[in-house]
Amino acid sequence: MGRHAEYKDSGLEWIGEIPAHWKTMRFKFIAQLINDKSIHDGKKYIGMENIESWTGKYLDMGEIVPESLCNNFCKGDILFGKLRPYLAKAYIAEENGTCSSEILVFRTSSILRRYLFYLLLSFGFIEHINSSTYGAKMPRANWDFIGKSYIPIPPQDEQNVIVKFLDNKLHKLDHLINERTDQLSMLTCYKRDLIAECVTKGLDKSAPMKPSGADWIGDVPEHWQIVPLRAFLKPNNRKNPGGLPLLSVERERGVVNRETDGSPDNHNRVPDDLSNYKMVDEGQFVMNKMKAWQGSYGVAPCAGIVSPAYYVYDLVFENKAFFNYAIRSKCYVGFFGRDSYGIRIDQWDFKAECIKHIPFVAPPIEEQKEIVNYLSKQESKINRLQANIEAQIQKLKDYRRILIHDAVTGKIKI
Question: What is the pTM of this model?
């Protein structure tokens, strides 16, 4: 890869210079907006969550409830997410179907299709479109702005070369990313298994064992106590006094400060009025009752506020670090799933009174300290390995984005 022999100013800030023999055209002269709406009729439905950011890959998210009024698309159409366009969601339809009204449907010639698809995923174009959005909390792109935007158009033979190049290079990069993602998953599984083993079996493998009476827990050391979970949890419902940070309760990490440590994938809307939110003290136990079956609960590491729909408990347990390791282990999640009810699986509701039916295995306090110390050290080692792998993945993803942008804007000659 090198540079083209001669460049010219495109006149477009987001592109800069383009090869001298390329041209620019308004988007609406390259692609047609398909504004064909209907009620979902059983065809394949694609929501925003089905399109992976920056890759254009389809994600099978299981059963998704379609919107009442959908956009129709045909095989070969390009779908582009107008809601939060900075997420860079574009997808080439593989069959006829319907999609969310938050997705724009573009139709173009088969010659231009994949080149245009890659251009929609270039970070320069995404930044350009994102600069035009309206709506502070739910920013959306506007077709008029997109349609009037100029885009670079290379000769047809170069389009073909660019598409083949990107198809090949991105396939190799995705393979590397998938390998490292698998490594992350293996380490996560190992960490879960290690925690579950330690909080239910202890560190002394020679200790005599006894049945716990619960399949999810299995045998436990003979001298450990099995106590109903409710013995340690006392409901506490205090209103937001003001001035406290908003906390999130996540499946993978438990309770975190939403602003400083929250997941970037958390797009749940926060209301303007938080006066009805519940106050949480450091060391209290917090549960998202609608997602408890997924493991969305834990001990709060700091004071804050949570949704009024959450359960907040005083935790009467000396070693709160052990309690958090144990209750968030895979051994206990099944109990919360067993006692959650609802019509839709994504809205199952855990019944507070069922806490009395959940057994909790409590070792002597000295063993709790030993287990916490051991797990803390092991977890730190695993986390360092994962951080290193995540950094490698991010570098590969960054290179992927740069490669797409440079190829479709002519910054490199292919």
Answer: 0.85
